[in-house]
Recover the amino acids of this structure.
């Protein structure tokens, strides 16, 4: 099957235990029953105070003091700002001081006191419990849903990858010598694609040549020696509001791509196999699966697929699901929770070597932060 062909292949996914695989066990806890912000869009994990433990950062569209982080292991809440941000965000050391900063951008709507044109970085101070200072990266575009950080152009430096849905562009920015300049100099900005409205970004070396490609929704962009970007559309007919994850699901040494249609009532979950990008349908009945990650949950060496549904006060039984990779193209779907979840993320919260799950709802009537500790043994 060629890239861009419609979906034709569906894999069998079991929902009953298979063989002798050990059960996946998770312990759920609510670390904050109600955050200061509403319509929380950002949920990220990183060591924010340098103690070696992964902390949790949450940011929302609305509300005072809606940019907060929770200190592992007590989960004390630290208010670090008030902001108006879209889904996505990335933690990266922007200014080279050894501390993780936050990159995030405005949504399309414009409440009083804000615009919809700014992509920011929030500077983590020496004391990360104090307010984080925002700096404007660019104000050229509108609505910034998704960012990523990595070496985009092969120069050995970290760049900021972004998508702007309002302007229909995908681009990246070199970090200037003084990133506190607002906005960053125009020469830092490079456009990869124009006239393309997508969600979901990843930076990965897909072909093993030592240079990273860009995954933007159901598209891959490769940069040639002259610095020009060529687009390959991997699958047609998808809703453009996708989530993207990358991982070697079939064990052939090449990273595959997983996509979910994050904003549909009956959404698809797809596995695209590198290098032909043959499309395998894992599910076609998910409700707004706006959380998608790839990780090995049981330590068997095979990456699994995590996906979660939003709920949105309309779906009575939203699910957190793991499509457990049994090898040979076989998967077992396991429900690990029933909480409305948006932009959930993964990380080893308790230091046992297994990925845990952190999530929060978007618009569910309450604004908790959920943690599922992986107790699989």
């Amino acid at each position: 099957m060629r890239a861009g062909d419609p979906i034709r292949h569906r894999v069998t996914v079991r929902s009953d235990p298979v063989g002798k695989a050990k059960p996946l066990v998770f312990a759920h806890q609510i670390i904050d029953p109600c955050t200061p912000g509403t319509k929380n869009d950002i949920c990220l994990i990183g060591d924010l105070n340098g103690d070696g433990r992964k902390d949790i950062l949450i940011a929302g569209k609305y509300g005072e003091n809606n940019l907060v982080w929770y200190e592992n292991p007590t989960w004390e809440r630290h208010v670090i700002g008030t902001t108006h941000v879209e889904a996505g965000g990335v933690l990266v050391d922007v200014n080279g001081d050894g501390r993780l900063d936050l990159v995030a951008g405005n949504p399309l709507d414009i409440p009083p006191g804000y615009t919809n044109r700014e992509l920011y970085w929030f500077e983590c101070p020496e004391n990360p419990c104090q307010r984080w200072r925002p700096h404007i990266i660019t104000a050229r575009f509108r609505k910034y849903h998704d960012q990523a950080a990595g070496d985009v152009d092969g120069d050995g430096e970290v760049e900021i990858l972004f998508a702007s849905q309002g302007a229909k562009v995908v681009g990246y920015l070199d970090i200037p010598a003084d990133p506190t300049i607002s906005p960053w100099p125009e020469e830092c900005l490079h456009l990869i694609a124009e006239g393309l409205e997508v969600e979901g970004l990843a930076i990965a070396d897909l072909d093993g040549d030592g240079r990273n490609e860009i995954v933007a929704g159901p598209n891959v962009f490769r940069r040639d020696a002259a610095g020009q970007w060529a687009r390959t559309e991997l699958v047609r007919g998808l809703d453009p509001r996708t989530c993207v994850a990358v991982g070697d699901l079939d064990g052939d040494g090449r990273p595959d791509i997983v996509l979910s249609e994050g904003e549909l009532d009956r959404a698809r979950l797809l596995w695209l196999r590198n290098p032909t990008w043959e499309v395998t349908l894992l599910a076609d009945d998910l409700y707004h699966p706006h959380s998608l990650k790839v990780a090995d949950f049981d330590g068997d060496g095979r990456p699994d697929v995590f996906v979660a549904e939003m709920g949105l006060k309309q779906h009575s039984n939203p699910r957190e699901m793991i499509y457990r990779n049994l090898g040979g193209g076989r998967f077992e779907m396991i429900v690990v929770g029933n909480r409305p979840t948006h932009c959930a993320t993964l990380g080893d919260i308790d230091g046992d070597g297994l990925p845990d799950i952190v999530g929060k709802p978007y618009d569910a009537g309450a604004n908790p932060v959920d943690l599922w500790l992986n107790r699989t043994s």
Remarks:
- The longest strand covers residues 38-46.
- The chain has a mean pLDDT of 94.
- The chain has no helices and 30 strands.
